[in-house]
Specification:
mainly alpha
Length: 429
């Protein structure tokens, strides 16, 4: 029993094979393994910070350095566009039928200012005119060598007919004209800028000269360029504006002319009535024309009450604009004192455009102020403006009547209401 108990107390060796138990690492290491952060110096990696900032700094410096040159170029480009546009409008104002386009442009100035509520909207078409003038100027300059060469050829044929030198000048002129035509067409295709005429880009011509796509793109650019200056719309606007204004002026002007040609007694009555009616109409027509340009309705010329309400909303601005209309119309009367020679036939029209442009800008600005407001201004400013406008229009009416003694066309010069219409009677053209 005892032995048996002792034997039981002693452990008996196990004959079973030992089992390998896989213990997870998490059980052994309860904490998560943190990433090892080395405190040693990291290896040098080429940084791109300097390479990305350097072009931007250089670009900013270049932009600052060339800013005066860009401003000067923009100023010259703008002045050139104004000169081209004034010349084109003056030429149009001197030609029958085309005169309505010039009048339509002047009315369009006021409409755009009212629409966009910005005075700079009245300077539209300047970039288009500058580009057109650049094409004309570049074409003119590039054809000068061929023109001079043709003069040599003509002189040679006159002085040395059937000579070898004349024949040489002939084929040289033909080659130069053909080369100039090719360069001109290529410059037009590329955009018609002055630099395109100065440098014809021969390498690009060899690569793309026979490519159809470049000519299709030039065709699209041309018609897009033409659409920027809607001649048909300007003609319609000018013609309708002329009809509406002329219907107001024909009766008082006819009475004023009757006061000069009718027998004594009747002429005094006709002249007095015509003079008073003309001065009163001068109070309304500038605003009526501007409102017609904005709304494009001939019935606007019958709505006198709206003119009064518009004036009450911006009396000072409209007073300034209407005074400028009559004041800036006076220089044209000085130009028409004598018959305009054919050599300077554009001079009166140029003066007309130069002084009519600011008046239309002021009218658009004043009408835009009245259009924004809904309530009238102070009665004092309204009546003060009215009372001071009356002597202004009567003074201008007196100058109009007196112009028959200084104008070449006598009493018929009263039809030349260039302050509101177009300078029709430059008949000498």
């Amino acid at each position: 029993m005892l032995e048996t108990g002792q034997d039981n107390l002693q452990p008996t060796p196990s004959t079973a094979p030992l089992a390998v138990v896989a213990i997870p690492v998490e059980a052994v290491v309860p904490t998560s393994v943190q990433p090892v952060v080395t405190t040693s110096v990291e290896p040098a990696v080429p940084s791109t910070q300097y390479s990305t900032q350097q072009p931007s700094i250089v670009k900013q410096i270049t932009h600052i350095l060339f800013a005066p040159f860009r401003a000067f170029y923009c100023l010259v480009f703008w002045i050139f566009g104004v000169a081209v546009l004034v010349t084109a409008l003056a030429l149009g104002a001197s030609l029958p039928i085309v005169q309505f386009v010039a009048l339509g442009y002047l009315l369009e100035i006021s409409r755009r200012i009212v629409k966009h509520q910005k005075v700079r909207a009245g300077f539209w078409g300047i970039q288009t005119a500058a580009r057109t003038g650049g094409v004309i100027l570049g074409t003119f300059l590039i054809w000068l060598p061929a023109y001079f060469m043709s003069n040599y050829y003509v002189d040679a044929t006159i002085m040395l007919p059937d000579s070898e030198r004349a024949a040489q000048y002939g084929w040289q002129t033909a080659l130069l004209a053909a080369f100039t035509s090719l360069v001109t067409l290529w410059a037009w295709t590329r955009g018609g800028l002055l630099r395109h005429f100065i440098w014809p880009a021969p390498v690009r011509f060899l690569k793309e000269g026979l490519n159809r796509k470049i000519y299709v793109a030039a065709h699209d650019r041309f018609w897009k360029f033409v659409s920027e200056f809607p001649l048909r719309t300007l003609f319609v606007t000018g013609f309708k504006g002329f009809i509406g204004t002329f219907c107001w002026l024909i009766i008082p002007i006819g009475l004023c002319i009757g006061g000069m040609v009718l027998p004594r007694g009747i002429n005094v009555v006709c002249g007095t009535i015509g003079y008073i009616a003309l001065a009163i109409i001068f109070l309304y027509l500038p605003i009526l024309q501007t409102r017609f340009a904005v709304e494009q309705r001939l019935s606007v010329f019958r709505e006198i009450g709206v003119v009064r309400s518009m004036y009450q909303r911006a009396p000072l601005a409209l007073w300034i604009s209407m005074v400028s209309v009559w004041l800036l119309a006076l220089p044209v009367y000085l130009v028409k004192i004598e018959l305009t020679p054919r050599e300077v036939v554009l001079l009166p029209a140029v003066v007309f455009i130069i002084f009519a442009w600011p008046t239309r800008i002021l009218l658009g600005w004043a009408y835009a102020r009245a259009h924004r407001r809904e309530t009238p201004r102070l009665r004092l400013s309204i009546w003060l403006g009215r009372l001071t406008l009356i002597p202004v229009v009567f003074a201008y009416g007196s100058i109009v009547l007196a112009s028959r003694y200084t104008s070449w066309y006598g009493e018929w010069s009263l039809l030349e209401q260039h302050a509101l219409l177009i300078p029709i009677p430059f008949f000498s053209f």
